């Protein structure tokens, strides 16, 4: 699951949707923040979504769910 934050719904996306995804058992959740040029990846551990990876403006983020899938942050923004 990936969520792209927008200025008008950012708080909702970070708080409310996050809790829904966690409750529904989403195994991996990416939050893409265009304003800060950052990506956070949350993975499910012991029934909770925990921050697994984070990159801002540069670096590589790798999926733990989709084998071999990786994204260079510089290519997103």
From TrEMBL:
Domain Putative restriction endonuclease as annotated: residue spans: 2-70
Pfam families: Uma2
Species annotation: Neomoorella stamsii
Descriptive protein name: Putative restriction endonuclease domain-containing protein
Classification of source organism: Bacteria, Bacillati, Bacillota, Clostridia, Neomoorellales
Origin: domain of life: Bacteria
Family matches, as PANTHER family: SLL0198 PROTEIN-RELATED, SLL1222 PROTEIN
InterPro entries (alphabetical): Nuclease_put_TT1808, Restrct_endonuc-II-like, Uma2
Gene3D superfamilies per the UniProt record, alphabetical: tt1808, chain A
